[in-house]
Amino acid sequence: MLQNQQKYSDLIKQKALKFGFQSCGISKAEFLEDDAKPLENWLKNNYHGEMQYMENYFDKRLDPTLLVEGSKSVISLSYNYFPEEKIDSLDNFKISKYAYAEDYHEIIKDILKDLVTVLQEEIGAFHCRIFVDSAPVLERSWARKSGIGWVGKNANLITKQNGSFYFLAEIICDLDLIADHETIDHCGTCRKCIDACPTDAIISDKIIDGNKCISYATIELKNEIPESFKGKMEDWMFGCDICQDVCPWNRFSKPNLQEKFQPNSYLKDFKKENWQELSQDLFFEIFRKSPVKRTKFAGLERNIKFLMEK
């Protein structure tokens, strides 16, 4: 039995790397005891702002066996999205690197489906569900438990080898696998992310007040952007990478090799004047397959107008 557990665990990690994933780690599917109180406090403090969905399925967020019946293991995976070229911000509005290209949800989900198919051919049939930022799964907690990386002061998962510019995904399954160990927190006394945040959204180690976060304001917030953000947005029209850009560990980030993550040509060619003339039709043409479609035309238009107000 133990021999098969090790064999299957090793096989899953080997195949994951062959399918382009950066890292793969395994955790036992059990209640996330250490995360229950912090999550409860974060919600009680209303740090989730208008993200009411974060209040839903509290138990499922903490217990994977409620999400996937009979599950025994959580396989955590990371997929690099760091771009080869950074879009010029001179006389331009900024967009988070993860949104430079096509929507990662479907791309990674398709890769996961192919990975599972290959695994079932070699291991035999097993019950599982795949997740790519699309269900009540505490992805960073599972990735932390599986040893992929540690949660930094900016609440992003960080690795010594690759920094933090990657997506997280999970396969929750009924295979009884060998669990990995957590890694050490290597942030030390560094405060670069905390000090660099122009809106003071990182209120303490690993705790983000969403109401103050530029990413939240430009993506999740449906109402008008509060006046408290005026003059502090640093030209971010969708998302924000400031706390990642200043992280010393991201000097080790390497360009991704995924063709579908190559920057949208419009983003490279546009300047502020072009964005100010954006129409509904052009928005759809540019962002039809992009994560930016989440904010909708009205949301992006609101962000651009707010940035232009002096």
TrEMBL record:
<keyword id="KW-0963">Cytoplasm</keyword>
<comment type="pathway">
    <text>tRNA modification; tRNA-queuosine biosynthesis.</text>
</comment>
<feature type="binding site">
    <location>
        <position position="168"/>
    </location>
    <ligand>
        <name>cob(II)alamin</name>
    </ligand>
</feature>
<dbReference type="GO" id="GO:0046872">
    <property type="term" value="F:metal ion binding"/>
</dbReference>
<feature type="binding site">
    <location>
        <position position="215"/>
    </location>
    <ligand>
        <name>cob(II)alamin</name>
    </ligand>
</feature>
<keyword id="KW-0819">tRNA processing</keyword>
<feature type="binding site">
    <location>
        <position position="157"/>
    </location>
    <ligand>
        <name>cob(II)alamin</name>
    </ligand>
</feature>
<keyword id="KW-0479">Metal-binding</keyword>
<feature type="binding site">
    <location>
        <position position="213"/>
    </location>
    <ligand>
        <name>[4Fe-4S] cluster 2</name>
    </ligand>
</feature>
<dbReference type="Pfam" id="PF13484">
    <property type="entry name" value="Fer4_16"/>
</dbReference>
<keyword id="KW-0170">Cobalt</keyword>
<comment type="subunit">
    <text>Monomer.</text>
</comment>
<keyword id="KW-0408">Iron</keyword>
<dbReference type="InterPro" id="IPR004453">
    <property type="entry name" value="QueG"/>
</dbReference>
<feature type="binding site">
    <location>
        <position position="222"/>
    </location>
    <ligand>
        <name>tRNA</name>
    </ligand>
</feature>
<dbReference type="Pfam" id="PF08331">
    <property type="entry name" value="QueG_DUF1730"/>
</dbReference>
<feature type="binding site">
    <location>
        <position position="197"/>
    </location>
    <ligand>
        <name>[4Fe-4S] cluster 2</name>
    </ligand>
</feature>
<dbReference type="GO" id="GO:0052693">
    <property type="term" value="F:epoxyqueuosine reductase activity"/>
</dbReference>
<dbReference type="InterPro" id="IPR013542">
    <property type="entry name" value="QueG_DUF1730"/>
</dbReference>
<protein>
    <recommendedName>
        <fullName>Epoxyqueuosine reductase</fullName>
        <ecNumber>1.17.99.6</ecNumber>
    </recommendedName>
</protein>
<feature type="binding site">
    <location>
        <position position="154"/>
    </location>
    <ligand>
        <name>cob(II)alamin</name>
    </ligand>
</feature>
<feature type="binding site">
    <location>
        <position position="190"/>
    </location>
    <ligand>
        <name>[4Fe-4S] cluster 1</name>
    </ligand>
</feature>
<feature type="binding site">
    <location>
        <position position="133"/>
    </location>
    <ligand>
        <name>cob(II)alamin</name>
    </ligand>
</feature>
<keyword id="KW-0560">Oxidoreductase</keyword>
<keyword id="KW-0846">Cobalamin</keyword>
<dbReference type="InterPro" id="IPR017900">
    <property type="entry name" value="4Fe4S_Fe_S_CS"/>
</dbReference>
<feature type="binding site">
    <location>
        <position position="61"/>
    </location>
    <ligand>
        <name>cob(II)alamin</name>
    </ligand>
</feature>
<dbReference type="GO" id="GO:0031419">
    <property type="term" value="F:cobalamin binding"/>
</dbReference>
<feature type="active site" description="Proton donor">
    <location>
        <position position="133"/>
    </location>
</feature>
<feature type="binding site">
    <location>
        <position position="240"/>
    </location>
    <ligand>
        <name>[4Fe-4S] cluster 2</name>
    </ligand>
</feature>
<comment type="similarity">
    <text>Belongs to the QueG family.</text>
</comment>
<keyword id="KW-0671">Queuosine biosynthesis</keyword>
<feature type="binding site">
    <location>
        <position position="187"/>
    </location>
    <ligand>
        <name>[4Fe-4S] cluster 1</name>
    </ligand>
</feature>
<dbReference type="GO" id="GO:0051539">
    <property type="term" value="F:4 iron, 4 sulfur cluster binding"/>
</dbReference>
<keyword id="KW-0004">4Fe-4S</keyword>
<keyword id="KW-0411">Iron-sulfur</keyword>
<feature type="binding site">
    <location>
        <position position="193"/>
    </location>
    <ligand>
        <name>[4Fe-4S] cluster 1</name>
    </ligand>
</feature>
<dbReference type="GO" id="GO:0005737">
    <property type="term" value="C:cytoplasm"/>
</dbReference>
<feature type="binding site">
    <location>
        <position position="247"/>
    </location>
    <ligand>
        <name>[4Fe-4S] cluster 1</name>
    </ligand>
</feature>
<feature type="binding site">
    <location>
        <begin position="240"/>
        <end position="241"/>
    </location>
    <ligand>
        <name>cob(II)alamin</name>
    </ligand>
</feature>
<feature type="domain" description="4Fe-4S ferredoxin-type">
    <location>
        <begin position="177"/>
        <end position="207"/>
    </location>
</feature>
<comment type="function">
    <text>Catalyzes the conversion of epoxyqueuosine (oQ) to queuosine (Q), which is a hypermodified base found in the wobble positions of tRNA(Asp), tRNA(Asn), tRNA(His) and tRNA(Tyr).</text>
</comment>
